[in-house]
Amino acid sequence: MSVPASFSSSPILSLTEAATSISQLQQVHAYMLKTGLFHHTFAASRLLTAATTISHHSLSYVESIFTHVHRPNSYIYNTMIHAYATSETPGLSFIVFLKLLYENSQVYADKYTFTFILKACARVCRGKEGKQIHGIVLKNGLGDDEYIKNTLIHMYAKCGCFEVARNLLDRLQKDDAVSWNALLSVYTQMGFVELARELFDEMPVRNVESWNFMVSGYVNSGLVEEARDVFDVMLVKDIVSWNAMISGYAKSGAFGEVLVLFEDMQTVEVRPDNCTLVNVLSACAGLGALSQGKWVHAYIDRNGIEVEGFLATALVDMYSKCGCIEKALEVFDNVLKKDISTWNSMIAGLSIHGSGHHALKMFNQMISGGFTPTEVTFISILSACSRAGLVSEGLMMFDHMVRVYGIQPTIEHYGCLVDLIGRRGLLNEAKELLNKLTVKESPIVWQSLLASCRNHDDVELAEYIARKLFELEPKDTAGYVQLSNFHASLGRWNGVMEVRTRMREKGLKKEPGCSMIEIDGTVHEFLAGEGVIVEPPRLKV
DNA sequence: TTAGGGTTAG
């Protein structure tokens, strides 16, 4: 079909790029169908591209446009292959790729096709197919394309063909950091941190991403100090560098370091993003650092950042763990786009507060809102029932979880269940339930039952459980300590002496308990029997 | 006429 000269500047086409939602795009689509514009492949391609940038989660609308294009060209096929390659179902790229190769003799694969399909091969680790496609690339005379070469290096490495990847890298004409990163990123993601370091030291060129791969590689292998050493000598740090280091500290529980680094970040020209704020809030939650948490909340408001998704969850969690349940509820109520995690964090918050009835009410509201509870929801709701002594409600919830939602109970659910039954004094029933569990998983739940024995003065069962725990976890002191305390509470000093002697003989020492509290904006961490050991700095307000 | 490689996170 011939295209008018003014076609590409048609106002309706610029509307495809202006659309910010599927429904807006569908209006443009309807207009195109009515006027026949949709029959122009170029117009359809603009619509298709706009649809791929808007629909991140579901490709059904993109697919429906693709199947209705009358005369698809390479661009149309490539856009569809790319959309699948970056989606949660990269394997579907192959179907479109085969259609392009064999169903349409008018259209040919080009350099874009190969970068996209090779990306799909890497995502699904299909080295055999990748190698075949590499053959087609060479046959088509595209073996010198820089983008294709870099994607090939990444694809081979991702599929475990490290020698082939390295060979391609060594044969490159010019040094490009992206080519080296293609291999480096795979080493760091797979946890081959020493290989990554060797490669990094060997690299003739590095860019900020190369450094970021090393920082996140060390962090993901639990080597936070090594990550910090790399971070400290970086000349250029971007938001990814800061977030990688901050999340490393957050993941390892070094919450004080998170706050220090966040403060350092404010002296440079890098603005925190949602990821930074989520990690800082989780550090505040872990430390009970309410004023720092409030500062982050104020920062969010000041900068007009929308409270949704991870950020909403983190804020609710921070306020709950810092003891401000009212504030957590207020934040929760103001979240416009709640997801299942937002609900889970609110229910967990109510559970921590011992507000069992309120947690159950929240659970029902969530169901009425059309949300499907997850494993995590039930852990919170069961522990809420357990903490608040709502035994029959808890048992009903457990039954509901299995029968209505088809969720297989995990060790955490059994832990809550044993706690619930134990509170009712049905200790032998709880014991029977536990003996059905696999040995590998059960120690923590046995400990929970041991606590119930103490509340119901069942020395015989306590001895039985303690013996069980000694067998399961000979190095763990928790069982010994609980039994010893139990004997002490009954004035059975011989029992106490016996257990303590057994601990000494095995060279075991109880780790001191610790707790944290914020006083006048400073977080103090107390070890049992000691003074203050941590004082994270206050943030600029 | 449109587009491409490596990218931190509850």
TrEMBL record:
It comes from the Eukaryota. PROSITE patterns: PPR (PS51375). PPR repeats lie at residues 176-210, 238-272, 339-373, 374-409. The keyword Chaperone does not apply. Keywords: Repeat. The keyword Cell membrane does not apply. GO terms for molecular function: mRNA binding. Belongs to the PPR family. PCMP-H subfamily. NCBIfam families: PPR. This is Pentatricopeptide repeat-containing protein. It comes from Abeliophyllum distichum.
